[in-house]
């Protein structure tokens, strides 16, 4: 099997070719977390192959850079699971589980949101940010779908984007329960799935159809 075929068989984004001919391996870190076994496995791989170390990406992922082609398969096997476990990226902050400012359980909500999103096939990749308070450390307002907690519930946002054409998300609802938030997100995504163009991210989608159309689809006559 060629190296290209081998990479093709891995989860999308698990191994990335670099300009210098080496590769970056991305261990699986669900919700930005690593256990001791994964830490040891990564450490052993870096030592064994004399790699410069690891790098943390803004997306809460660890990157093992400069892996030569001859060592690629062994490094992937050494760290175990690689790539994202779900198609859509969920980025949480620590929230009320560990942050003194946390007003809602963002880790728990992110865990459940990931499973809600797994049921959707969407026009483009989807990034989400789940923050435990309005400080928005998980960058909720520049994500396709955002949640941030306040004392009385969750704020739900939609259509945000970072990158070269930044768009601040629109607020769909405030002070809703987690269940209500997921229902709102599911309705917005169903509308996006039906009317979005291929590779059209939510920011461009909202700019094209208008946020009122999204709100109509989500709330109908309820608002
Ligand atoms: S968003 Fe709020 S709860 Fe989350 S890490 Fe930042 S300050 Fe803490």
From TrEMBL:
**Keyword match Iron-sulfur:** yes
Query: What SUPFAM superfamilies does UniProt report for this protein, alphabetically?
Result: Nitrite and sulphite reductase 4Fe-4S domain-like, Nitrite/Sulfite reductase N-terminal domain-like
Instruction: List, for all copies, the residue spans of the domain called Nitrite/sulphite reductase 4Fe-4S.
Output: 93-218
Q: One MF term from GO for this chain?
A: heme binding
Keyword list (alphabetical) reads:
4Fe-4S, Heme, Iron, Iron-sulfur, Metal-binding, Oxidoreductase
The superkingdom of the source organism is Bacteria
Entries under Gene3D superfamilies matching the protein: Sulfite Reductase Hemoprotein, domain 1 (3.30.413.10), Sulfite Reductase Hemoprotein,Domain 2 (3.90.480.10)
Q: Give residue ranges for domain Nitrite/Sulfite reductase ferredoxin-like.
A: 18-79
Q: State whether keyword Iron-sulfur applies.
A: yes
Q: Which InterPro entries match?
A: NasD-like (IPR052034), NiRdtase/SiRdtase_haem-b_fer (IPR005117), Nit/Sulf_reduc_fer-like_dom_sf (IPR036136), NO2/SO3_Rdtase_4Fe4S_dom (IPR006067), NO2/SO3_Rdtase_4Fe4S_sf (IPR045854), NO2/SO3_Rdtase_FeS/sirohaem_BS (IPR006066)
Pfam families attached to this UniProt entry: NIR_SIR (PF01077), NIR_SIR_ferr (PF03460)
PANTHER family given in the database record: NITRITE REDUCTASE (NADH) LARGE SUBUNIT
The identity of this protein, by name, is: Nitrite reductase
Source organism of this protein record: Pseudodesulfovibrio indicus
